[in-house]
Write a structure and sequence with these properties.
Keywords: Cell membrane, Membrane, Transmembrane, Transmembrane helix, Transport
Distance between the termini: 27 Å
Number of domains: 2
Helix content: over 70%
GO molecular function: transmembrane transporter activity
GO cellular component, one term: plasma membrane
CATH topology of the largest domain: Growth Hormone, Chain: A
Domain Major facilitator superfamily (MFS) profile: 1-390
CATH superfamily of the largest domain: MFS general substrate transporter like domains
Shape: globular
Number of helices: 16
Membrane topology: Multi-pass membrane protein
Order of helices and strands: HHHHHHHHHHHHHHHH
CATH architecture of the largest domain: Up-down Bundle
Length: 390
């Protein structure tokens, strides 16, 4: 193994572990702790999720600025700073006494998510490894795909043992004693400036200005459409499967297959699909959910597992595509700022998706799958219109 390959592998392992903690102690936290938070603070559970949504909106707004910072300085300063910010936000949550301090703490968490989740980690890898970052990006997504599997039970156990405030303090401590040193040691520094010939090669690979505007708009739409479906179904999939005729037990069992399907698809991306053009794998990922929904419409409740497996597989590959597609189509120059801009509409949609899907299911029931399939198929059509690039 070459030194460069070893460095990429170390970075993927280190960032995969710290991303698992970052996701588990922020994005996945309300699923377990929102209800006890609400009871203790004397607010409704939707109020806690509203504070979380405000944090996501802040994350969307700050994404481009954080990306520019990573382009200039590399990912190590941003990722290590995120651990300090996450720790401060979690301590703030543990000390919250009412709605005002709850929202303030979640705003700090939003700053942490802007500087410490996938977009920042992927930008760090692109700044360090250029066009060779696809493998490490896939590796990070593969490892961090276990975040909910690991961190939901951990949060539930800590809440039972120490209360939700104690759980927040434990997560804060883990950011300081585990993730911060790991990010400091293994997050790659920004690569030295390239030789002129290499710069010219990257410039020639990027699309012309007019094409770049269309490509950026197309990717922003695809990422927003797929992210809205992913977040909406993450909040409501068991209920939707019940609307389609599955029993509550069967719906929960089928929904539990999403996580393993995501990890399995990422393993395929890491192995068999790693030499495939990212556009091709992204197109296949967009088609997976509509195929599963069509099976559910044709066969009814017995096809619930097929839907969840296909949905999970597509979602797993699209998580990687959010990092690899901008790299493949534009190159590493300005990657951080560009991905921040491309993901801003997706973050806005993410903040609105849980409530929007709840209203949609109330009105349409299982026909909501027609909406999700339409969004995913629209993403497929837009990706087809992009055409393959070198």
């Amino acid at each position: 193994m070459t030194a460069a390959a070893a460095a990429r592998r170390r970075a993927a392992l280190g960032l995969g572990l710290t991303q698992t903690l970052a996701w588990g102690a922020s994005y996945y936290l309300p699923a377990i702790l929102a209800a006890p938070m609400a009871r203790d603070l004397g607010v409704s559970t939707p109020t806690v999720f509203a504070a979380f949504s405000v944090a996501l909106l802040l994350t969307a707004a700050l994404g481009p600025a954080v990306g520019r910072w990573i382009d200039r300085r590399g990912g190590r300063p941003a990722l290590t700073a995120s651990n300090l910010i996450f720790a401060a936000g979690l301590v703030g949550l543990a000390l919250a006494q009412g709605p005002a301090t709850l929202f303030a703490a979640w705003l700090v968490m939003g700053l942490g998510m802007a500087t410490g989740l996938y977009e920042a980690a992927f930008a760090a890898l692109a700044a360090a490894f250029g066009r060779e970052a696809r493998g490490p990006i896939t590796g990070v997504a593969l490892i961090a795909g276990f975040a909910s599997t690991v961190c939901w039970p951990a949060s539930a156990w800590m809440e039972a043992e120490f209360g939700w405030r104690g759980a927040c303090l434990v997560w804060a401590a883990l950011h300081l004693v585990f993730a911060l040193p790991l990010n400091r040691l293994l997050a790659p520094p920004r690569a030295a400036p390239k030789a002129r010939a290499s710069d010219a090669s990257d410039a020639s690979a990027a699309p012309p200005a007019a094409d770049a505007a269309w490509t950026s708009a197309a990717l922003a739409f695809v990422f927003a459409a797929t992210w809205i479906v992913s977040v909406g179904l993450a909040a409501h999939l068991p209920r939707l499967l019940e609307e389609a005729g599955a029993t509550p037990a069967a719906a929960l069992a089928a929904a539990a297959l999403v996580g393993p399907a995501q990890v399995g698809a990422r393993l395929l991306e890491f192995g068999l699909m790693r030499r495939m053009n990212p556009l091709v794998s992204a197109r296949l990922a967009c088609l997976a959910h509509p195929l599963g929904a069509a099976a559910l419409a044709a066969l009814g409740a017995p096809a619930a597992a097929a839907l969840t497996v296909l949905h999970g597989a597509g979602n797993g590959v699209m998580t990687i595509a959010k990092g690899t597609l901008p790299l493949a189509l534009f190159g590493p120059e300005g990657y951080g700022r560009r991905t921040g801009l491309l993901m801003a509409p997706a973050r806005l949609g993410q903040a609105a998706a849980p409530l929007g899907f709840a209203l949609l299911i109330d009105a349409w029931g299982a026909w909501t799958f027609a909406v999700t399939s339409g969004l995913m198929f629209a993403g497929f059509v837009v990706l087809m219109a992009l055409g393959p690039r070198r």
